[in-house]
Design a protein that fits this description.
By secondary structure, the chain is mostly helical. It contains six helices and no strands.
């Protein structure tokens, strides 16, 4: 959900939609489709109205940000591993990716990523 202004009508619409979702998601429990039905976006919505009252409208914030980070931090590493001790492997992969990103920033600051290997070699040889 993205909007610039949150009015009382918007808050009522959010609550109505949330109530509707919780009413109809029970069918998944009844049919035993999944044992625990707690999607991140829908769960975060349970706190949304309270947080709007506390802090105001989250201008420009979108719940898809969480999903995007989840894909990078969980789904992509999960597909690159053997799935044994998956959480440990995902944490190590994310730690290494963070270190690589920090190294890239450092290398850019030092000018180490300017040019290509052949052009740098030719420049060093004075050609």
């Amino acid at each position: 959900m993205c909007c610039n202004i949150t009015t009382e009508d918007t808050i009522i619409a959010i609550q109505d939609s949330l109530n509707c979702f919780h009413k109809y998601c029970k069918v998944f429990h009844a049919e035993e489709v999944i044992s625990m039905f707690s999607l991140p976006r829908q769960h975060s919505m349970t706190h949304y109205i309270h947080l709007i009252h506390l802090f105001g409208a989250p201008n420009g914030l979108c719940s898809s940000i969480t999903e995007c980070k989840h894909i990078k931090a969980v789904k992509e590493p999960y597909h690159c591993m053997n799935h044994h001790n998956a959480l440990r492997q995902m944490l190590i992969i994310n730690q290494r990716l963070n270190k690589l990103a920090a190294a890239r920033v450092d290398f850019q600051k030092q000018g180490m990523l300017n040019g290509t290997c052949p052009s740098t070699t030719l420049e060093a040889l004075g050609k």
